[in-house]
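Example record

One chain of 123 residues, shown exactly as stored in the release files.
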Amino acid sequence: MNKKKEELGCQKEEDTREWVEECGGMNINKLMKEAKKMQEDMEKSQQELAAKDFEATSGGGAISVKVSGSKEIKEINIKKDVVDPDDVEMLQDLIITCINEALRKVDSAQSSAMGNFNIPGMM
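Predicted structure tokens for this chain:
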């Protein structure tokens, strides 16, 4: 078998003792190891991101929201002076704006973290 590989222009890679095609051939075992490491690194990055908190404010600090990296709302704080029973719609708008901004921060952090892995077509 080894003689046939030599005749096909393959060479033996010393450190892994695997046969690799000459002139830039792919070592599938090495590729699989790199893919596994990348997957482990991505999972670690996702876990670290999920453990972080992201905050946003709206209405000049009248509303503040804290969300986790896994996009769960953890806190909503509303200052009493912004609560106007005659203008509930303004309060709703401020809350929506604040939550959306916090979620955008999570998305941005996710994009940044995943961008480190440079996988074509993924992001």
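Notes: Residues 2-48 form one domain.
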